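Exam review. A common question shows you a sequence with its structure tokens and asks you to describe the fold in words. Practice with the pair below. Do the first one on your own.
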Amino acid sequence: MQHHIISPPPLPVARIRAIPLRLFNYRLAAMSLSSRGLLPLLLVFLLALLDGPAAISVAAEKDLYKILGVNNDATDAQIKKAFRRLSLKYHPDKNPNDAEAQKRFMEVQEANEVLSDPDKRATYDLHGWDGVVKEKEAAQRGGGGGGIFDFFGGGGHQGKRKTPDFRTEFSVTLEDLYNGHTRTLKVARKVICKSCKGSGAKGGQTRTCPHCGGRGQVMSVQSLGPGFNIQMQTPCDKCQGKGKIAKHVCPVCHGSRLQMEEKVLDLIIERGMKDGQEIRFERAAEQRPDHIPGDVIVTLKTQSHSRFRRVGDDLHMDQSISLRDALLGHKSSFAHMDGHRVNIDTTGDIIQPDSIKILKGEGMPLHEMASDKGDLHIHFKVRFPRTLTKEQQEAIRALFPSGK
């Protein structure tokens, strides 16, 4: 935002938006056309000429999804499968001296290069093929910027805003965390309209904004007090600073440039993951024009289990036994969460109330090292009889004389 004190009235100002015919991909800052401004303008123009092919931005729009024969919401696996099939079909070794096949082969390679890369695919979905070309040119110039022209407002993704991350909780069972599982999560979100590529215009056809004359900026005067006014340059609210408006409104998004979409995410729950652990899907949140999409962040919430309690990588469980078993030994078994049998044997041991027996390697798998496991802690709960008959009392007295 530029501020100009109106005293005396400002010199005539022209907004140089781009070199005619889009020959050069540089946006220049407002510059006075007075004698003091002509020399810098000439310098900028000459530097653009010297910058050579890197400054040229002539790219025809192409549909990469159509080239691979997949839908816009195709999964990575579907894209990979289509790429392999078409690569084999049009491979030069199978089509010698066939120029059309070679052309299709190159198109397939190019489409896969973009759609198989999450960052490049996001750029293409948001800004089309022209956005991919501009991003590649910016990377070739180094650091994602445009050299000296960064001073005049050019250059890659620097300063680009990001939409908010979307956070949600997902309920999982202890069995899911023990065995690993893949669940699906559906997220309703706003995305760039696929019909108009976010232009809001039917067929992408636009015309110069009559409000700002195509400059994308308008000048406004604000009074800060008696005799003290400032002139400010602000984005045009009619075209949102684009300098273009739709010739005909897009019939899909009705000019909003956004449409609702239900995104299906494959939630891969790895063995040994913990309660509260986050799974992040980069750039899967809501989209907006000229924004980088935020992430979808899923927090795992573990349901309570009927048998086990988890503490770190260990499992704890209660085992109720009779007084007889506590004195003479206890044998039992149960099915673990993956189906294998776990045997409990206290033969030869006298079990004290609330004593604990530890079974090594029968706990939770260690995340990222699932071949190793924690331990299982068995807490014994001894059931004492509520009453004893006279015969039972006499038998106990005989077995345990007084004081022993």
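Now try the second one, then compare your answer with the model answer below.
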Amino acid sequence: MTNTGSVVLIVGSAANEFRPVGPSSPSEDSRTVPVSLRFSSEAREWLERLTAPVDLHPADVESASRLAEAILRNMQEQHAEGEVDHLREKLRAVRIENSQLERRLAERKIIERAKGILQVQFTWTEEEAYYHIRRTSRQQRTPMVTIARRIIGSSAEAQTGIELLSA
């Protein structure tokens, strides 16, 4: 049977070689392949420096502590700045939504005014006036507010004409 399973590597006691142990489950082939990897002298020195115990002077510990506190403060400030940026973006989005809602309300008021004019002019119900504006809007492929403005404009012109005749 050929070893097709995973190979487990164990670090050698000299910390400069890996030794493959073979398959991890006993049901697989138990043969091992003798392979050893050697580190370069620079890599071995680096590993030794990395794992070597360090004696620090109390002043070094104090300066490292101050450095860590400064780094922590900086990270907290950056986090706070990120939160502020997030809140500014949220405020901007709310302002945009507010202006859109104000515009829609103004358009609704114009449509309501036009409905009132149609109700008085043709003795229609509010529903009939609304459906007239909506049907005309769809037929002309024009927003309802534009149709409502035209109705208000033509009503204002007619009112001006009546005032001129009665004067």
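Model answer, second protein: The radius of gyration is 41 Å. The longest strand covers residues 9-11. Full marks require stating both points clearly.
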